[in-house]
Specification:
heterotrimer, A mainly alpha, B mainly alpha, C alpha+beta, A: mainly alpha, 3 helices, about 70% helix, B: Cytochrome C Oxidase, Chain A, Four Helix Bundle (Hemerythrin (Met), subunit A), two-stranded antiparallel sheet, about 0% strand, globular
């Protein structure tokens, strides 16, 4: 049974729906912790943010990559079975496509939110 | 199971009238609400939900009166209507009452009342827990409000910033806040656990994830948010109360503490809290809009995305309440970014509603009026929210009346209007009557006008430089006229609320009972008979559609004639169905408890412990805690994990379900798991405190050189992990029915747990760490105390399992207790491990 | 007076807020400093944008209620939600975020080296102000800040007790003052005049009565003022004042207050060396005259609830008059 098979409920999980926002949350927390600790303990309040910005850029690449994979998996679910079954159909396939679409939309939102966080290091270059 | 069984259809033929009559009588007997003075022992969701809502509404009126007092004081410059201290008490109480005693409890109360109806369930899975939560809340809230009468109310603002509240405001006002509210927060978490389990496990058969009412999605998100948002403020309150009572310097800069830590913990709660209030109100809108548009909601997945997305993003906003504390610009930027991003899902929801209205044919009604008025106001609050989310603008707007205007637009527009609209809409479910259309319109226009007249000018007063939380202002600075206008508006708003109260209170005896499903809605709660029956639904339907009353032909008839599940109560027990999380396949017939006083006693003793602690009557507090523990143990012993008289039961339509399941299949296991997630969050906040001090203060690492050493913490941690392993072994032994091994391993687990706790305490005490000297020993002691307290509870649970088995209430097959206790010990072992790693390990690597 | 730029902003603000007028010594909409100016422009743009968005939403809703679309509109409604609910807001918010983030570094940057350094400590419920004097020694004042026109001022902010917040709406954003930590705020006044600063963080009973006077003047004028403030107090010239000076020491006022040039050297309360020259009393909430001095000495609690200064209501009225005369003479 492939993991995308809709019929088997035991393969399904609500965790999949929240995976993309969890990527955003992880990216956000790690970025915040990095810049806060960097400025307070290492660079000082007049210091440069350079290394921390590089780190945030790396986190962003990782997070967007993760969100992209989740979106891809969600897209497959969304397209499952020809992609015609209605989301409100009383069938495993309808539920499967619904989870796919909700996850896909959440991935898009999470990607935007992650990009917003990353914008910060584009504009702010020091610890002031 | 990989093959989807076909959908079950209702019985083709209705049971005979005689059979139906017998079923009704037995159901009525099982679900009868106690009468007379005994009615206070009721635990059914409809009773508890009603009381809960009435109490929340009373607190709302109280908070409103406080608001009017403030507006009278600020009507003219240099007014002397209230003294400075009185005003400071009043604004503190207004904020606290509205947030903690009205907004959150109102949504929980309403959900307790209506969720089972929406899910076609007979009750929530833990009725006595709801009752416990309600009584805790009613007691804690009354106690808290009473402080104002004795002029002992807190006056540190609802945000309670130290060091003002820890060292500069003598008296017990702050203790009222810290202890009174912690008690209520615990009740709120209890309700959240209940609602999460309700949505996930108590849906009607066939109600797959893609078919559940939007209200339930919103509720799931909001309840999950409570679970992660309340623990930080509980952890913060714990730190602050310990500083106030025992002088541990968590927020005292002179001894290495930091007042900003409180702000982090408070707003880590405070901002999600706004969305916890907002989401359930949008949920009400999401139920009203399809009904008035007479069509299914447009963009169901979009709304689910928006609800879940908002829930997450709202945890990345907390620092926007701290934009002016002087944090580095980069931190401000990150939180600015998340604060802007959260506007996106909000916009999506609004467009879904507009699209639904456009695609449907809108009928005009009072609830719709409130929905429109609320959304129009909320959008303004949202737009000013987008403004203040930008750190540069917030540098000016922060802590001014601009923010007062903004937050009331969000909370009144986004919450009060939809809630009042929701009361007009759902009132037939409470009373079997409709509220007055004429009074409803009057209420709306008075409230709407008064609201804008009050709060719109505040944006201007704020930008002209009027700070918040001022008991008076000087004339001639440009605030005079706008403040007078706000005061006039506040009284118009109050007049609207009065008309509403009159509409609720006026006698409706002569008014005819309204028709069933008076708004012609499509969702299940309108199955309810008018006036309602205590059993909730006559039989639990199989669901095939999002709007079953619209799209499933003859549903109401089939439900009423008992053609679906559980049409009878043969054993005279209260029963409801438990289903699977994803596709809502029936998995268990759950017996829920009936009326009982025990929840009330437990709440009063728990409350007693908190109340006596407020006055620092430690002996009374200890006695009350012991009584509370006793009451809760009695409750668990007599009321939970009861071994049924038979293994399975035929629930109708040829489905036979077990009456007793344990482990992840049982609702109790889920409740424990969810509770422990919240508990672990509070622990994480304490650990965050440790690392926060390390980040901020260079001398923190030096202080760590003194203790607690490696030996004792490692010994303690090792013993506790061993105790955990033995608890798991005991569970396995019980399942294999090897009694001797079970008793031996469980009792050794108890011994190891006690030994481990002692070793853990020995660490800081043998290295001479004095928690009042510096924040480093204080936070180490706090982590140790937290762990030891949890181990203590774990020991009680281990002994409870031993006693249950000895008494024959737990067997190899019936092992709910052992399963839940091992789950608890997973978390406890993790707590012990993290504590040891932090206090003993981190100083060595840092 | 409003500048022309501020006036056009006012018109727009009036559009957004339904009320006109930006003037005021404490108005963020009447900027007299670089930071306040940037923020007022940002606000104007956002207020206009918000008004447009709000009107569009209301118009859409009204339209949606009136229209009854054909039953088969699923595809179009999906596009409507995607475009109106997701894409347009995302574009607008991205633009706004970029604007806000681009503005941020300038607003949080410290003042350039060599700027006039002013240390301000928030105390319940007044402001202790310290300038570097002409001779290199620190000059302590209270409740009044003079800033140089057209130059940056480097404010060093902290607190002696609870959290306060230093805010001069006309000049720029606020910054909180914490005990045990010094924060830096840079202000660039661009228009000379007198303004009013206030405490923006709730700090206890008399939070509402914690303001200070702000004077923006050319650097030369500021230096003259500072030179005057750094001098010791001039001996009183009237007999009543002289009696007050003696009473000031005899009644123990010097335990908390300093009057430089006299034995009074207390540091708990505000420095009174030139108190008569200040733009207001009681943290810029009361007029600076003999009557107010007298009331303050006898009943401080009635003027500032919770005040830490004990009441001297037991002093004979003649003594109070003398003390008030003395303080008024401390120009």
């Amino acid at each position: 049974m492939s993991p995308e098979a809709p019929d088997d409920e035991s393969n399904q999980s609500l965790w999949f729906v929240v995976a993309a926002p969890l990527c955003w949350a992880a990216h956000f927390l790690v970025s915040y912790a990095t810049v806060a600790v960097w400025c307070e303990r290492y660079a000082g309040r007049d210091g440069s943010l350079y290394q921390a910005r590089v780190a945030v850029a790396a986190y962003t690449a990782a997070a967007l990559g993760g969100i992209g994979l989740i979106a891809l998996a969600a897209w497959r679910r969304y397209q499952h079975g020809g992609g015609t079954e209605a989301f409100d159909a009383d069938t495993p396939l309808g539920r499967h496509r619904f989870i796919g679409s909700a996850t896909l939309l959440l991935s898009a939102l999470s990607a935007v939110a992650t990009a917003y966080s990353a914008l910060t290091v584009v504009f702010i270059r020091d610890c002031h | 199971m990989s093959q989807e069984p076909p959908d079950l259809e209702p019985l083709a033929e209705a049971p005979s009238d005689e059979v139906q009559r017998g079923q009704r009588e037995r159901l009525l007997a099982a679900w009868k609400t106690p009468t007379g003075w005994r009615s206070w022992s009721a635990v059914n969701n409809t009773s508890i939900g009603r009381w809960y809502m009435m109490a929340a509404f009373c607190f709302f009126l109280f908070g409103g009166v406080l608001a009017l007092l403030m507006r009278i004081q600020l009507a003219v410059p240099n007014n002397t209507f209230l003294s400075a201290e009185r005003y400071n008490q009043v604004f503190t109480m207004h904020g606290t009452v509205m947030m903690f005693l009205f907004a959150i409890p109102m949504f929980e109360a309403f959900s307790i009342f209506v969720l089972p109806q929406m899910l076609g369930a007979r009750d929530l899975p833990f009725p006595r827990l709801s009752a416990f939560g309600f009584w805790s809340y009613a007691l804690g809230g009354t106690f808290f409000c009473a402080s104002l009468l004795f002029n002992a109310a807190p006056r540190g603002g609802w945000f309670m910033y130290p060091p003002l509240t820890t060292r500069y405001q003598p008296g017990i006002g702050a203790d009222f806040w810290l202890l009174g509210l912690s008690f209520i927060e615990v009740a709120a978490i209890a309700a959240a656990v209940e609602l999460i389990v309700g949505v996930l496990k108590c849906r009607p058969p066939g109600m797959r994830l893609n078919l559940i009412p939007l209200y339930a999605w919103y509720l799931l998100v909001a309840a999950a948010m409570i679970l992660f948002a309340f623990p930080p403020v509980i952890a913060g309150s714990l730190l602050m109360e310990v500083e106030r009572a025992f002088d541990w310097p968590f927020f005292d800069t002179a001894r290495g503490g930091d007042p900003l830590l409180w702000q982090h913990l408070f707003w880590l709660f405070g901002h999600p809290e706004v969305y916890v209030i907002f989401l359930p109100s949008v949920a009400i809108v999401a139920m009203i809009v399809p009904t008035v548009a007479r069509r299914a909601i447009v963009g169901y997945s979009w709304i689910v995305l928006a609800a879940v997305g908002t829930g997450f993003l709202s945890f990345g906003l907390w620092v926007h309440h701290m934009f002016t504390t002087g944090l580095p610009g980069i931190s401000l930027g990150l939180f600015s970014a998340a604060s802007e991003a959260v506007a996106i899902p909000t916009g999506i929801q609004l467009f879904c509603f507009i699209a639904t209205l456009a695609a449907g044919k809108v009928s005009r009604s009072v609830p719709m009026l409130f929905v429109f008025g609320g959304l129009a106001s909320f959008v303004m609050g949202g737009l000013t929210g987008v403004m203040v989310a930008l750190a540069p603008f917030d540098f000016q707007a922060h802590d001014t009346f601009f923010i007062v205007g903004h937050l009331h637009y969000v909370l009144i527009g986004g919450s009060i209007f939809p809630v009042v609209g929701g009361i007009y809409y759902f009132y037939p479910l409470f009373d079997g009557k409709l509220l007055s259309d004429k009074l409803g319109r009057a209420t709306f226009w008075l409230m709407f006008t008064g609201f804008h007249v009050t709060f719109l000018p505040m944006h201007l007063t704020g930008l002209r430089g009027m700070p918040r939380r001022v008991f008076t202002f000087a004339p001639g600075l440009g605030f005079d006229r706008a403040n007078l206008v706000s005061t006039v508006g506040a009284f118009i708003l109050a007049a609207g609320v009065l008309v509403f109260v009159w509409d609720l209170l006026r006698s409706k005896k002569t008014q005819p009972t309204c028709a069933r499903n008076p708004w012609n809605s499509g969702s299940l709660e309108w199955l309810q008979e008018m006036p309602d029956k205590p059993w909730g639904v006559r039989s639990i339907p199989e669901i095939d559609r999002r709007y079953p009353l619209w799209d499933q032909p003859n549903l109401m008839r089939d439900v009423d004639e008992g053609r679906f599940f559980l049409p009878d109560a043969e054993e005279g027990k209260r029963e409801t169905l438990v289903t699977s999380v994803i596709d809502a396949r029936p998995v268990q017939c759950l017996r829920v408890p009936g009326p009982s006083w025990i929840a009330l006693y437990a709440a009063f003793f728990t409350g007693g412990a908190f109340i006596t602690s407020t006055f620092h009557w430690w002996k009374a507090a200890l006695a009350s805690s012991v009584l509370a523990l006793g009451a809760i143990l009695y409750w668990l012993w007599t009321g939970t994990a009861i071994i049924p008289e038979k293994e399975t039961k035929d629930v109708g339509l040829g489905v036979t379900l077990p009456l007793y399941v344990s482990g992840p299949a049982s609702v109790g296991w889920w409740a424990m798991f969810i509770t422990m997630l919240g508990d672990a969050t509070a622990f994480v906040c304490l650990v965050f405190g440790y690392f926060y001090y390390w980040t901020i203060h260079q001398d923190f690492a030096r202080a760590a050189a003194q203790g607690p050493g490696l030996l004792w913490p490692l010994l303690g941690g090792g013993a506790l992990v061993a105790s955990w392993a033995l608890t798991l072994l005991a569970r396995r032994a019980n399942r294999r029915d090897r009694a001797a091994l079970f008793y031996a391993s469980m009792l050794s687990a108890v011994a190891l747990a006690i030994a481990g706790s002692c070793a853990l305490i020995a660490g800081p005490s043998r290295t001479g760490l004095d928690p009042t000297r510096h924040v480093y020993p204080a936070i180490v002691w706090m982590l140790v105390a937290w762990t030891v307290f949890h181990v203590g509870l774990g020991v009680v649970m281990q002994l409870y399992c031993v006693a249950r088995r000895a008494a024959g209430r737990m067997t190899a097959r019936h092992d709910i207790d052992a399963a839940n206790v091992s789950l608890y010990w997973h978390f406890t072992a993790l707590t012990a491990f993290v504590t040891v790693a932090v206090i003993a390990g981190f100083p060595r690597v840092a | 007076m409003c500048s022309p730029a501020a006036r056009s902003r006012t018109l727009l603000a009036a559009l957004a807020l339904g009320a006109a007028a930006c003037r005021g010594p404490q108005s963020a909409l009447d900027p007299a400093g670089r930071g306040a100016d940037r923020i007022a422009t940002l606000f104007t743009i956002m207020a206009v944008g918000a008004a447009v968005v709000w009107l569009a939403m209301v118009a859409l809703t009204v339209f949606a209620v009136r229209v009854h679309a054909a039953p088969r509109v699923e595809r179009r409604t999906a596009l409507f939600i995607l475009g109106g609910g997701a894409l347009v807001p995302t574009v607008v918010l991205t633009a706004l975020l970029v604007y806000g983030l681009a503005l941020l570094p300038e607003l949080v940057a410290p003042a350039p080296a060599g700027s006039l350094r002013v240390a301000v400590t928030g105390e319940q419920w007044w402001w202790r102000v310290r300038y570097p004097g002409p001779d290199g020694r620190t000059v302590e004042l209270a409740n009044e800040v003079h800033l140089p026109l057209g130059q940056a001022a480097d404010l060093r902010l902290d607190s002696a007790d609870v959290i306060h917040s230093f805010w001069i709406p006309s000049l720029g954003g606020k910054l909180d003052m914490f005990p045990g930590r010094t924060s830096r705020l840079a202000l660039w006044p661009t228009r000379a005049g007198r303004y009013r600063g206030v405490c923006a963080e709730y700090c206890g009973a008399s939070h509402a009565l914690m303001a200070f006077a702000v004077v923006v003047e050319p650097r030369a004028a500021l230096d003259r003022w500072l030179a005057h403030q750094s001098e010791p107090a001039r001996p009183p010239t009237t007999p009543l004042g002289a009696r007050g000076a003696a009473l000031f020491l005899a009644d123990g006022c010097g335990a908390c207050h300093a009057v430089r040039g006299t034995p009074a050297a207390g540091t708990l309360g505000p420095d009174l060396t030139h108190v008569g020259s200040r733009h207001g009393l009681g943290a810029a909430t009361l007029p600076n005259d003999a009557g107010t001095f007298a009331r303050w000495i006898t009943h401080p609690e009635s003027l500032k609830p919770g005040v830490h200064m004990p009441a001297f209501g037991m002093l004979p009225p003649a003594d109070v008059r003398a003390l008030a005369a003395y303080l008024e003479e401390l120009q």
